[in-house]
Design a protein that fits this description.
alpha/beta; Metallo-depent_PP-like
Length: 245
């Protein structure tokens, strides 16, 4: 049996990422997958990229990674792009769309938001058919088959649901959780790259971290959109409709 830690939505929050990495390593887990949105919102996109590159075996692109990876006249994008530098921007632009593998006889597909788009938002309370569609493949995926287990990030709400005999899960957010004021990630345990049925375990982990240190770093950085970011860290309440996660 092998364990994989799956993280997502770091958003430049290094105190949260360091706490999660310490917890993962304390469990002797060496394989880490990241489901995107490494950058944006928080003050330390540059350091977050460096840590993800160092510790994560596979990483997919998130909507913020794509958004900030492209030149723009938008001030918040320019701020993060200047902080990142060209080498890190090149890394963000090189990230793949999905991670796909077999584990304990289940075909698993991991992506940022949906198997069709980086920007399609699906919440745990959305229409049943919309959630069921997350098991489907698309031209952006590697294999043209339905997933037995579909996992994603994007909405910053950790959950697990069983739909028509398949398992849908969201790993939550490391750096910008919007359900609890603790970092979230998932541990998947089973027989990696094995198509034979075997036990498979999914465990959600919540990790407390120094929120006030993250607030202090944000304040000292003079980052854009400071107050909404601080409010989300302290309350886990979404800043409002019409703003991307």
């Amino acid at each position: 049996m092998e364990k994989i830690a799956i993280i997502s939505d770091i958003h430049g929050n290094v105190p949260a990422l360091e706490a999660v990495l310490a917890d993962i390593h304390g469990r002797n887990i060496t394989r880490i997958f990241c489901l995107g949105d490494i950058v944006g919102k928080g003050p330390s996109s540059d350091l977050a990229v460096d840590l993800v590159k160092k510790h994560c075996e596979e990483v997919v692109m998130g909507n913020w990674d794509e958004f900030i990876g492209r030149p723009s006249e938008i001030a918040v994008v320019q701020w993060h792009r200047e902080l990142l530098g060209q080498d890190r921007l090149n890394y963000l632009n090189s990230l793949p769309f999905s991670i796909e593998f077999w584990m304990s006889g289940k075909f698993i597909r991991l992506f940022h938001a949906s198997p069709r788009s980086l920007n399609e938002r699906v919440q745990p309370w959305d229409d049943y058919e919309q959630r069921l569609s997350l098991f489907l493949s698309s031209g952006l995926c590697k294999e043209p088959i339905m997933a037995d287990i579909a996992g994603y990030g994007d909405v910053h709400n950790a959950y697990l649901q069983h739909l028509d005999g398949r398992t849908l899960l969201n790993v939550g957010s490391v750096g910008n959780p919007l359900d609890l004021t603790q970092a979230s990630y998932l541990v998947m345990e089973g027989r990696y790259q094995d198509r034979a049925l075997a036990p498979l375990n999914l465990q959600f982990v919540r990790v407390p971290y120094d929120i006030e240190l993250a607030v202090q770093q944000a304040q000292e950085s003079h980052m854009p959109d400071l107050e909404p970011y601080i409010k989300e860290l302290r309350t886990a309440e979404y800043r409002g409709k019409g703003v991307d996660h």
